[in-house]
TrEMBL record:
InterPro entries: 26kDa_periplasmic_antigen, SIMPL/DUF541. Residues 1-21 form the signal peptide. Keywords: Signal. The keyword Signal applies. It comes from the Bacteria. One of its GO terms (biological process) is DNA damage response. This is SIMPL domain-containing protein. The lineage of its organism: Bacteria, Pseudomonadati, Pseudomonadota, Alphaproteobacteria, Hyphomicrobiales.
Amino acid sequence: MSAFDLSARGLLLAGSLFAFAAVPALAEPPAPPMISVSAEGSAAMAPDMAVTTLTVLNEAETARAALDANNATMDKLMAALKAESIAERDLQTAGFSIQPRWLYPEPKDGQQVPPSIIGYQVQNTLSVRIRDLDRLGAILDASVTLGVNQGGDVRFTNDNPDTAIEEARRDAVSRAMAKAQQLADAAGVKLGRITQISEQSSSQPPMPMMEAQFAKSAMRSDSSVPMAAGENEYRVSVSINFEIAP
């Protein structure tokens, strides 16, 4: 190959590179202007179920004696709950423990005296779902009579809150749409298509009943524990992104 050919090839290659470099890089189109809003919607629903914990605590000189006493009480408690038409699926052991009780004597003649076991403590906790709220107070009262001596935490809930959550979601979207329209009107622009929607849901503790209603239930002639179920409030938060129409 001659020197002339090499020179010509070099000029051709250099020209190609120059032509490639002269082509401007394709710039990405700018992101369209957006309006982003968030809003919260809520809906209330009367609870149809209560979850409570019932604990039996026994102490004795030996672990065997404490366990036997605890088992006897728990057997009576579970039989009574089943007699209240509480299903097996609504009864669940939530905790069980056997613990020694220690005595820590005061130091004697400046010497530390080793601790000693003076007894044992057995604790059994049962989680109970009560679907007939009208029987809740009576069940708690009967449980104490049978030997329950700890627990009693009551949480009112709903077996199926989907209806309330759907209502809260619609409320949240409606509020967000109205807020976006207000912003667009104030800015003198028009809303375009929705590019993104996201949500977060949560529930709130029951709202207390009116004081007069609670007082009325507390003055009943039976020995049931007075209870106020109130309402559960479910909340949904949504965030929506809108393009601004050209």
